[in-house]
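Form 12-C: Joint structure prediction
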Amino acid sequence: MLNKYPLWKNLMVLLMVVFSALYAAPNFYPPDPAIQISYDRGVMDQIALDKATAALDADGIAWFGADIESNGVGLIRLRDRNLQSRAQQLISVALPQQYIVALNLVPTTPPWLAAIGGSPMPFGLDLQGGVHFLMEVDTDAAVTKQLNDNVATMRNLLREERIRYRPPVELDARQRINLRFLDEESRSRAIEALRDGFQELTFSTENQGSDFLLTYTMPEASIAELQKYAIQQNLTTLRSRVNELGVKEPKIQQMGPKGILIELPGVQDTTRAKDLISAVATLQFHLVADLGASPASTLEYDFEGAPVRINEEIIVQGSSVTSAQPSIDPQTSLPQVNIRLDAQGARQLNEVTRVSIGKQMAILLSESKTRSVTKANPDGTLVTTAEPVVEERLISVATIQSALGREFRITGLSSAEANDLALLIRSGALAAPMIPIEESTVGPSLGQENIDAGIDSVLVGFALIVGFMLLLYRVCGIIANIALFFNVLLIMALMSIIGATLTLPGIAGIVLTLGMAVDANVLIYARIRDELLQGMSVARAIDAGYDRAYTTIVDSNLTTLIVAIILYSIGTGPIKGFAVTTVIGILTSLVTAILISRALINFLYGGKGVKRISIGMKMPTTA
Amino acid sequence: MLDLTKVLPFMRYRMHCVVLSALLVLGSVIAIAVNGFKFALDFTGGTQVLLQYQQAPDLEQIRQTLEQAGFPDNEVVSLGSDTNIQVRIQNADGSEETEQAAGETAARVAAVLADSSPNQVTLAGSSFIGAQVGDELREQGIMGMLVATALLMMFIALRFQFKFSIGAVLSLVHNGIITAGFIALARIDFDQNVLASILGVIGYSLNDTVVVSDRVRENFRLLRGVEPERIIDTALSQTLVRTMITVMTTLLVLFALLFFGGPVLYGFSIVLIVGVIVGTYASIYVATSTLMFMNLSKEDMMPPVKAKEELDALP
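Section 2 - Result
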C-alpha cells in the first residue's frame, strides 16, 4: 500500500507519543521549598529529624512531610518560602555540628513518574530564583602558596648548583624569603643562579654577624597581580565545576575585590553543591621516608591503621595532573582513578621513580572544605560563621615496580570518592581556598508581570501559528498542528531528561523553534500541492510529496544541526544552552513533522480510492 | 496559487541587489564602528547594592524607579527574605570596577529609592561585581564560529558543490553583519539573549539558503538545455510560496513576543525580526547571485547525478 505505515511504524509513533507525554508530565507539578539535612558521617537519623521539626514547631513555622530520603538525606518541606532561611538557622542551632543544614527546592513529581526517571525541568534564576552563595577567596593564601613554591624551587636550584647555604630556607612572618650564606662568593653565585627564575621577586642583601643574608620579597604590584590571577582562576574553575555538577544557567561572577558570587537555579542537593564548590583537592606525590630519616624533613600520616613517614619533598605537584577519570579495575572490580600527568610532571615522576625502584611512593590527598556553623549568641541572635575543614590523608602507598610515566592509576578509594576526586581534579584546581561567607535563597529576577507577559506572548505566538496553519491548509493544517503539539511535548520531555533549565528567553527560543518547525510541513504540503497540480492522484501526490520534500528537509536540518553541535562542543554558557535547544528542536521537528504527520495523513487519507484531500487548494479537475 | 510554468525573473535584478547588500553591509560596519555595542550587565559587570526595607517593597516599583533615575539595565531580587533586596546595576560609562565607584553608585541608588517611597530603606552594603560572562566566552565563541564555518563549507561542498558553500557562507556573513549593524544602530542592550538571537538568525537563514539551494540542485538535474539564470529563477519561483509561509509563521511568533512579551523579550525579538527579514532576502538573492557570479554550470552539477533521476525528468 502506498500510504499505509506497517504496524511497527505506527506502534513506534504511538510509543513516542506516550514517552513524550510521560516525561513531560513532571513539569506540571510545582516544587516545594524545603530544608535539607544531611549527616556528614552517613545516613540521617529519625531522632535528629524530630529535633529539627520540634525546633520549627517552637517557632511556629509550618512544615509538612519530614522524611529521610533513600539517599540518606533528611528533607522537611515548608509551606512558606520566605521562612526558609529562618528555618535553616533554627535547625542548625538545634542540631549538633555534624548535621549539615541546607536550603532546597524539592520536586513534587508523583512516585510512579519518578520511578521511571521522570523529573521536572528546573526554572531559571529569572523565573524562580534559586540558591545564592557568596564565597570569599583567600587571596593571601595564594600569595603564600606561591612564595612557598618559590622556596622549594630555590632550595632545589641551590642544591643543583652546589651552592652552600645555611638551612633553613623559609618564609618569615613578613612574607620574605631569607637565604643565609657563609661567604660573599656563595651569595653572589646564588644571586646569579636565581636571576632568571624569580623575576617577579625583588632581592636585597645584608650582612648579619657572620651571615651573608639574601632576602627576596614580592613587590606590591606582583602581589596584586597574583591576587587578581587567583580570583580569575577560581572563577574559571568554578564555572567548570558547576558545569560538571550538571547545573545549567548558573550565575558566577566576581563581587568586590575578593568575593565570588554563585547563584544556582533549582539545585537538588545543596550540601553537595557547596562542598564541591569550595573543595580544594590536591594530590601530591611523595617518596616514603627511609628508616632513620630526620623528622624535620618528613611528615607522618596514618595509612590503614599504621603510621607512615613520608619525605616532605614533593615529587609531583597536583597542578601537573591533567586528567582524572573514574573507572573500575576489571580484575578486582574495585573503583580506581586513572591519572594523566602533563609533560613536566611526567618527567619529574620518571626521574625520581627510575632511581627509586623498590622504594615506596605515597599519594597524599589533601581536601579542604568549608562548613558553615550556626551558633546562638547569649542574647538569642543566631550567627552563622564558616569554618574550614582540612582533611589530609594518604590514599595510596605502593612499592615502585618500574619507572612511572605519564599515565597510571590510583586505587584504594570508594566509588563515590573516586567520582568526586576525578571531578575535582578534572575541573581544575582552585588557585586559592574559598570560604563561604553567605548562603541564602534568591528570588526571581523577573517580576510576576514580566513573567506573565512573557508566558502570554508565547501562548499568543503559538496560537497564531496554529491559526495560520489551519487557515492555509485546512484538515492538513490540523494535522500539522497536532504534530506541532507533540513537538512541544517531545521538546519538554527531552529537556527534562537532560535536566535543562527553563528560562524565559529559553521558552521564547522554543516557540521560535516551533515557528520554524512548521517549515518541514510547509515544504511537504507545497510539494503535495505541486504534484496535485501536475495531475497526480491524491495517493500518489501524498507519497511523492513526502518523498521529494524529504531530501530538502534532511539537508537543511542537517546543516543547521552541524553548526549547533559544533557550537555546543566549543561554546560555553549561553551559547551552549542555545545550541542544546536548537539540537533538540531540530530532532523533534524532524520526528514530528515527518513521522507523526505522515502517520496521521495515512490514517485520514490512506484508504483506497481517496479522491479529495483538504490541503487548502481547489482540487484540479483531472480525471 | 503559483503556477509552475510562471517563472519570476529574480536574477534579472541581481545587480541591484548586489548594490543594496553592499550598502547594507557598509552601513552596518559604519554603525558598529561609530556606535559600538552597548554591552549589558552580563558582559560588563557593575555594582551590587544590598538594601534593607522596613516592609516588603514592590520589586516592580523599584525596577521602574531605577529606570527613571537613569539605571535602565537593572536587576532587582529579594535575597533570603522579602525585605532584603539586592540590586545590580551598571556603573556610569567609563567608571572603573573599584569599591569606591561601587560605593558612590550604591549611595545614589539608596538615595533615589529612599526618596521615592515612604517605606524606610537602609543601605546594607555594596560591592562591585564582575562580568557574568567570562573572557573565555569571547575566545571560545570566535573559535567556535570559525570551526563551525569551516565544517559547514565542507558539508555543503560535499552534499552540493563547492560554489554553493561559498554562497551559503557569504550569505551567513552578510546576515550576521547586518543584524549586528542593526543592534549597534538601534543601541539595543547587548546581553546574552541578544547573542542567542544572532545565533538564531544564522540558523534560520542557513536553513532557508539550503532549501533554495536544494531546489537549484534539483532543477539543474531535471531541466535540460535551460540557461543557469532561468534554472535559478525557476527554483526561486517554486520555493517562493514556501519561503513566504515560513517567514510569516516565524514573524507571527516574533511579533507576538515583541508586542506582548514585555521588556525581557524585546531585544531578543526585535533582533530576530530584523534578522529573519534580512535572512529571507539573502536566501533569495545573496547565495543565488553568488552562484551566478561564479558561473555555476551544468558540468558543476554533473558528477553526483544518478540514473534514477532520469525517470523523474519532466515530460
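Section 3 - Comments
The first strand of chain A starts at residue 32 and ends at 39. Chain A touches chain B through 84 residues (CB under 8 Å).
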